[in-house]
C-alpha cells in the first residue's frame, strides 16, 4: 500500500471514529428530549458505537500496513466504505440537528409530529448495513495473504452490495460518474473498479438533505435484514404428526393470525412452549459477560448487536434461562433475524439447544417461528434446519432416558458437551468450546467427552477440536477402554436393556473379557483372580488395550495408523516394552509388538518399531500363536515380512527366536 493511500485510510478512519463519538453524544442528548423514543434512540446510538469501534480497528491496521502490499480490490473497498460512512454520518447529523432545534412544545400533539420515526429507522438500517460490511471487512484485512483477502471479498460481495444499496437512498444514481467502458469507472481517488462509484461534490450535502429532494425522491427498498417493532402476524399450521405430540386440546385449534410481540396474544401452541421450559437447566448459560450482553441486547430488541454477540462467544441458551426475563416474542424475533442473516449460525445454535432441551421442546419452538415471505430463505432450507435439530433432540432424549436420576446433575446426567461429542458434531462442539463449555471430572469414565467422541466414531477433525482443551492422561485411557466396549452394540453407554441383561457396570478391570466374548461364568471366575491385576487395578496395560481395541473395531488401515500414532505420541516405554497378560485365564506375558503380530496388524508393527519398541515375547509364543490359528495366511505373511525386515533391530530370546524360525518354515511350506 502506497504512503498516500495509507494516509488517506488512516485520516478518514480517525475522522469517522471521531464523528461517531459526536453523533453518539448528540443522540444521548436527544433521548433526554424525546422520552417516548428513548429505546429507539439508544439502539441507534449502540450501532454508531459499533461503527466507531470498527473504524478504530481499521485505523490501527492501516498504521501497520505501509510496507506491505495490498490488492487494489481491498483498497478500493476500504475507500468506498469510507465514502459511504461519511455520507451516512453526515445525513444522520443533519437530522439530529433538526430534531434538536425543534423542541417539543406545550402540546403533546406537537411532540408526536416532530419525532419522525421513519427517518431515523432508515438511518438505523443504513448504519446496520455498515456494521455488517465493516465486520466482514475486519475479517478480510486480518487474513495474512493479499490473494486470500481478494477471494473473500469476492465470495461475500453481497454483504457490501446490500450496504451500498442502502446508501443509495441518500445518493441518487445520477450522481455516478460513468464513461463508455465499465473498466473506466473511477472515483476521486482514481481507483478503478467494475462497480458504480459516485464523485462527491461540495454541494452534495445541501442538495440531498434539502426539503425538495426528500419530498420527491423515493428511496429503494433495502435488502438489509430488518426487525420491525410494529405488529406482525403469523400463522401456525401443525402437521398431522406434530398434532399428535402437542398437549391435549391443541389439535382442535385452527390457524389464526396473532401478534408475536405480545405474549398474552400468542397462540396456544406457543403458550405450550413457554410453559414447558428447558428440562436441562444445568446446560443453560455459562454466566459470561458476553452472555449478559446478549440478554441485554435482546431485551432492547437490538437483534443486530445480539447477532454479533452470538457470533463471537455468547451462548444462545442464555436468553432461555429462567432469570433472563425475555418475552417469547423477542426470542422468536432473534431466531427470525438469524434465519435471514446467517442460517448456518442458526443451524448450529438450534442443534446446541436441541442437545440440551430435547425433541419435544424444539418442535414446540418451531411452531412459534413461521416462514415469512420477507426472509431470504427457502422453505426447504427452513425444514432442513429444523428437522436436523429435531433429530439431535431425539438423540439427546434417547441418551438421557436411561440415566439414573440423582441429586447431583454432574455425576449422572449427560451434558450438552457429552452429547455433542457422542454425536460427533464438530460445528456445535466448536461453538460450545467458544462460548465456554469445558469437560469436568466424572465418576463414570464412559462419560468423558473424548470417550464419547470415540464411541460415536467421530471424525478426526471433531476429536482435534476437543483436543484443543487440556485433557489428562487418564482421559485418554478411559477413552480407549470406551472404544473397546463400544464395538459391541449391546453394550453402548445408554443401552439400558443390555446393562440389565448383562449386569454390566463401567469397571475397566473386566472390559477386555467382555470384548473377547467371555460368558457370564467366565467373568465370575475372573473376579476371583486378584494376583494378575496391574498396579492401577486394570487388567492389561493401556497400550495393549489400544492395540487390541483398534484391531477389534476394524477401521481401514490408514485409520488404524492414525489412531495408534495419536494414542502413543507421549507414551513412555518401560522394561520389556511393557509386558502384559494376553488373557486373564492364560498366563502368558506378551509385549505390544507381539500382540500386534498376533493380530496380523503389520501397520501397527511399523508404528511400534518406529517408536522404539524392540522386544517380541517372553513366554511360549508358539502356543499363543497356535491359538490364533484362524489368522489369514495373507496377514501372517505381512507380519513375517515386517519381522524379517527389522530382524536385526529386534531383541530375541531363545523362545522367541525358535518361534520365528518355525514361522519361517511354515510360511515357506504354505
From TrEMBL:
It comes from Massariosphaeria phaeospora. It comes from the Eukaryota. Gene3D superfamilies: Ankyrin repeat-containing domain (1.25.40.20). This is Ankyrin repeat-containing domain protein. SUPFAM superfamilies: Ankyrin repeat (SSF48403). InterPro entries: Ankyrin_rpt-contain_sf.
Amino acid at each position: 500500500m502506497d504512503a498516500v493511500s495509507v494516509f488517506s485510510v488512516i485520516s478518514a478512519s480517525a475522522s469517522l471514529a471521531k464523528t461517531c463519538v459526536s453523533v453518539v453524544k448528540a443522540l444521548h442528548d436527544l433521548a433526554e428530549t424525546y422520552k417516548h423514543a428513548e429505546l429507539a434512540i439508544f439502539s441507534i446510538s449502540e450501532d454508531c458505537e459499533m461503527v466507531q469501534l470498527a473504524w478504530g480497528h481499521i485505523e490501527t491496521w492501516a498504521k501497520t500496513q505501509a510496507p506491505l502490499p495490498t490488492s487494489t480490490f481491498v483498497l478500493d473497498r476500504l475507500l468506498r466504505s469510507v465514502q459511504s460512512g461519511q455520507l451516512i454520518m453526515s445525513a444522520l447529523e443533519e437530522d439530529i440537528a433538526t430534531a434538536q432545534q425543534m423542541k417539543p412544545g406545550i402540546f403533546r400533539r406537537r411532540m408526536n409530529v416532530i419525532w419522525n420515526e421513519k427517518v431515523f429507522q432508515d438511518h438505523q438500517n443504513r448504519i446496520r448495513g455498515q456494521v455488517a460490511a465493516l465486520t466482514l471487512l475486519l475479517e478480510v484485512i486480518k487474513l495474512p495473504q493479499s490473494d486470500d483477502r481478494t477471494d473473500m471479498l469476492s465470495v461475500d460481495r453481497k454483504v457490501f452490495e446490500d450496504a451500498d444499496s442502502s446508501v443509495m437512498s441518500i445518493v441518487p444514481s445520477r450522481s455516478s460518474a460513468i464513461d463508455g467502458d465499465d473498466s473506466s469507472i473511477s472515483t476521486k481517488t482514481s481507483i478503478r473498479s467494475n462497480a458504480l462509484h459516485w464523485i462527491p461534490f461540495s454541494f452534495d450535502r445541501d442538495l440531498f438533505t434539502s426539503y425538495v429532494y426528500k419530498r420527491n425522491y423515493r428511496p429503494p427498498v433495502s435488502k438489509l435484514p430488518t426487525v420491525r417493532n410494529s405488529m406482525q402476524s403469523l400463522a401456525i399450521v401443525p402437521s398431522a404428526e406434530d398434532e399428535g405430540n402437542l398437549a391435549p386440546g391443541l389439535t382442535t385449534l385452527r390457524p389464526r393470525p396473532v401478534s408475536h410481540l405480545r405474549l398474552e396474544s400468542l397462540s396456544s401452541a406457543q403458550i405450550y412452549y413457554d410453559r414447558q421450559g428447558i428440562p436441562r437447566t444445568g446446560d443453560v448459560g455459562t454466566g459470561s459477560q458476553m452472555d449478559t450482553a446478549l440478554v441485554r441486547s435482546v431485551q432492547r430488541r437490538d437483534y443486530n448487536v445480539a447477532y454479533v454477540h452470538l457470533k463471537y462467544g455468547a451462548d444462545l441458551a442464555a436468553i432461555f434461562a429462567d432469570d433472563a426475563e425475555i418475552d417469547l416474542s423477542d426470542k422468536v424475533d432473534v431466531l427470525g433475524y438469524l434465519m435471514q442473516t446467517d442460517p448456518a449460525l442458526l443451524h448450529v445454535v438450534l442443534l446446541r439447544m436441541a442437545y440440551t432441551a430435547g425433541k419435544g421442546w424444539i418442535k414446540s419452538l418451531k411452531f412459534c417461528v413461521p416462514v415469512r415471505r420477507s426472509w431470504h430463505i427457502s422453505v426447504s432450507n427452513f425444514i432442513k434446519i429444523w428437522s436436523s435439530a429435531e433429530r439431535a433432540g431425539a438423540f439427546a432424549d434417547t441418551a438421557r432416558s436411561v440415566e439414573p436420576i440423582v441429586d447431583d446433575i454432574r455425576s449422572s446426567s449427560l451434558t450438552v458437551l457429552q452429547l455433542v461429542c457422542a454425536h460427533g458434531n464438530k460445528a456445535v462442539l466448536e461453538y460450545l468450546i467458544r462460548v465456554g463449555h469445558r469437560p469436568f471430572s466424572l465418576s463414570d469414565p464412559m462419560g468423558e467427552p473424548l470417550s464419547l467422541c470415540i464411541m460415536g466414531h467421530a471424525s478426526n477433525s471433531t476429536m482435534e477440536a476437543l483436543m484443543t482443551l487440556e485433557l489428562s492422561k487418564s482421559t485418554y485411557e478411559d477413552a480407549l477402554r470406551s472404544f473397546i466396549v463400544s464395538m459391541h452394540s449391546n453394550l453402548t453407554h445408554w443401552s439400558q436393556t443390555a446393562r440389565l441383561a448383562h449386569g454390566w457396570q463401567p469397571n475397566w478391570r473386566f472390559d477386555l473379557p467382555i470384548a473377547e466374548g467371555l460368558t457370564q461364568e467366565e467373568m465370575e471366575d475372573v473376579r476371583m483372580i486378584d494376583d494378575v491385576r496391574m498396579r492401577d487395578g486394570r487388567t492389561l496395560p493401556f497400550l495393549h488395550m489400544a492395540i487390541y481395541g483398534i484391531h477389534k473395531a476394524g477401521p481401514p488401515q490408514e485409520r488404524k495408523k492414525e489412531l495408534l500414532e495419536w494414542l502413543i505420541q507421549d507414551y513412555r516405554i518401560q522394561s520389556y516394552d511393557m509386558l502384559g497378560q494376553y488373557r486373564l485365564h492364560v498366563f502368558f506375558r506378551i509385549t505390544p509388538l507381539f500382540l500386534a503380530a498376533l493380530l496380523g496388524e503389520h501397520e501397527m508393527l511399523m508404528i511400534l518399531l518406529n517408536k522404539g519398541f524392540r522386544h517380541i515375547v517372553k513366554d511360549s509364543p508358539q502356543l499363543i500363536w497356535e491359538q490364533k490359528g484362524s489368522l489369514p495366511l495373507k496377514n501372517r505373511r505381512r507380519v513375517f515380512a515386517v519381522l524379517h525386515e527389522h530382524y536385526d533391530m529386534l531383541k530375541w530370546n531363545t523362545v522367541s527366536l525358535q518361534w520365528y524360525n518355525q514361522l519361517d518354515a511354515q510360511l515357506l511350506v504354505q
